[in-house]
Amino acid sequence: MSLPPPERTAEAIACAEALRGLRSRSGLSLKELGAQTPYSKSSWERYLNGKTHPPRGAVVALCRLARQPPAHPLALWERADTARNRPPRPAVPVPAPELTAVPEPVSVREESSPPEPPEPPDPRPPAARRHARTGAVLAAALLCAAWLVMAGPWRSERADADVPASSEPEFACHGQRCTGRDVIATRCGMHPDMVTTHRPAPGLRVDLRYEAGCGAGWARVWGQRIGDVFTVSVAGGEPQTLTVPDKYATGIRLHTPMVAADSPDALRVCVSLAPGGPRQQCYPAAPPSP
Fold it and tell me: What's the CA gap between 14 and 12, in Å, rounded?
């Protein structure tokens, strides 16, 4: 007999509703979502219906496709993830009522044992008895504290032994397999190196970035306007282009698709501003050697 599915938390329901709203804004079908992200059509069906808690990268990828800032959806995802990993509260045991034993009647023919003599009263005054009880409690507390101090180093060594030796992120591609792919969905944009920064126009910033673990680089832009075009390339490679399509893509940070590069010095970015702006300008990652 199959087990019933686990109950969904209120946080998981709110996260799924936010994902459905992003998917509606994107206008993409489940099949199109599967084609434009690393997650399959069936996975998206489970994420949007709340059957499965989505990975963080799926939320970021859907925000990008819907051209929405990821801050609020990621906050909902964090709450759902915390609630999902929250251990259930143990049930408090209810003590059973004490049963009073009924003494059996003593046969008149049996010899009854002589009653035990009453316990002699404590000759100490009440204040002395209270001090004695307090001293016993303090002694027990000191013993517990000493045990915790001695057990602390052992517990710390055990905790350190359970930590994986490597906490490096697992990238979804490397080299040529990264060309044309998204930096968020592949996790290449988690901790990249900043190569160079350029300001082709007032208010516009273009950063060349590189991740050695992925063997790829890209351009990140701020302050862009509708119609601006940004192209990142390497010698002998396939250029990757980002065009700012509408107003929803002007108030957020954007990045070009990635291009495979053996080193950050091989990267080059070209900027073509909207009509009325300066002509195309290109910037290498490193100045040519003299």
Answer: 5
Where does the pLDDT of residue 199 fall: very low under 50, low under 70, confident under 90, or very high at 90 and above?
A: very high
Given a contact cutoff of 8 angstroms between Cβ atoms, the answer to whether 26 and 48 are in contact is no
The mean pLDDT value for 103-131 works out to 55
Length of the chain: 290
Q: Model pTM?
A: 0.45
Q: Could you give the residue range(s) of every CATH 2.60.40 domain in the chain?
A: 175-284
* Dist CA 155 CA 126 (whole Å): 43
Scan for tokens 């790829």, then name that residue.
Answer: 216
Report d(CA 217, CA 232) in Å as an integer. 8
Residue 85 pLDDT level (bands cut at 50, 70, 90): confident
Q: Over 90: is that where the pLDDT of 234 sits? A: yes
Averaged confidence pLDDT in the chain: 78
176-180 average pLDDT score? 94
Name the segment(s) of the chain with CATH classification 1.10.260.40: 10-84
DSSP labels, 253-280: -EEPPPEE-SSGGG-EEEEEPSTTS---
pLDDT-wise least confident of 53-57, 86-90, 244-248? 86-90
How far is the first Cα of the chain from the last one, in angstroms, to the nearest whole number?
A: 76
Asked if the 175-284 domain carries CATH number 1.20.1510, the reply is no
Judge whether 73 and 19 are in contact, CB under 8 Å.
yes
101: Cα separation from own chain's centroid: 58
Query: Which neighbouring-strand residues pair with 194?
Result: 209
CATH number belonging to the domain at 10-84, selected among 3.30.2350.10, 1.10.260.40, 3.40.50.1100, 3.20.20.70: 1.10.260.40
Separation CA 259–CA 240 (nearest Å): 7
Which has the minimum average pLDDT: 124-128, 188-192, 197-201? 124-128
| Nearest Cα to Cα of residue 215 among 197, 236, 198, 193 | 193
